[in-house]
Design brief:
Rossmann fold; 204 residues; 8-stranded mixed sheet; 21% strand; 38% helix; alpha/beta
């Protein structure tokens, strides 16, 4: 399973790094997956919302070359249009366009926190259940998305979750869904983390 986590200036650190650690631990536990940190514009380093500088492994195009199974989009910066973050990327439109293209090509799309607003701009949440950070719920409700009060919402090829720490729950859920409970339990035991049971599986 090939996973790309999309980084951009102003993303919330835990939104991306939390799921990254879960996925890497799953790979170490035997899951057949590879996770790549990507940027859309080829930047080799981005600065996250709290000032952490994070290196990227590849461009999103390079990571998707040959097929991408899952794209994970973090949040951060939705409520501050004057700073780098989701709001700026939403207004730009480049990341939503890339999300729409990858979804059309068959990739599963996941978001953490206000990253759901980028999925919404891409059109992949139209008439579908979704979750986001409380700070963006009103804005998401103004779209055609069916906003759910859940930590994680699994709608098959589109997964979303609530704010910040929900990204850990989302990543554990993805590991369990794709590779089984045993690997997921090995990961959570190593990380000393108890994942949520608050998962809305709309496609069941």
């Amino acid at each position: 399973m090939d996973v790309a986590i999309l980084l951009f200036d102003g993303f919330d650190e835990l939104d991306a790094i939390g799921p990254f650690e879960v996925l890497e631990n799953a790979a170490n536990a035997g899951a057949d997956l590879e996770t790549t940190l990507c940027t859309l514009d080829g930047a080799s380093e981005v600065t996250a919302s709290h000032g952490l500088r994070v290196g990227a492994d590849a461009t999103l195009d390079a990571a998707a070359d040959g097929g991408l199974d899952l794209l994970l989009v973090p949040g951060g910066g939705w409520t501050d249009p004057d700073s780098p973050g989701v709001r700026r990327e939403y207004d730009s439109g480049a990341i939503p366009d890339a999300i729409a293209d990858l979804h059309a090509d068959g990739a599963t799309i996941a978001s953490v926190c206000t990253g759901a607003m980028l999925l919404s701009k891409a059109g992949v949440l139209d008439d579908r259940p979704a979750a986001t950070h409380a700070a963006a719920e009103t804005d998401l409700r103004d779209t055609t998305a069916d906003v759910r009060d859940a930590r994680v919402v699994d709608d098959g090829d589109v997964l979303t979750c609530g704010g910040v720490t929900s990204g850990l729950d989302l990543a554990v859920h993805i590991v369990a869904r794709e590779f089984g409970d045993a690997i997921a339990e090995q990961v959570t035991t190593e990380m000393e983390y108890e994942p949520t049971s608050d998962v809305s599986r709309s496609h069941d």
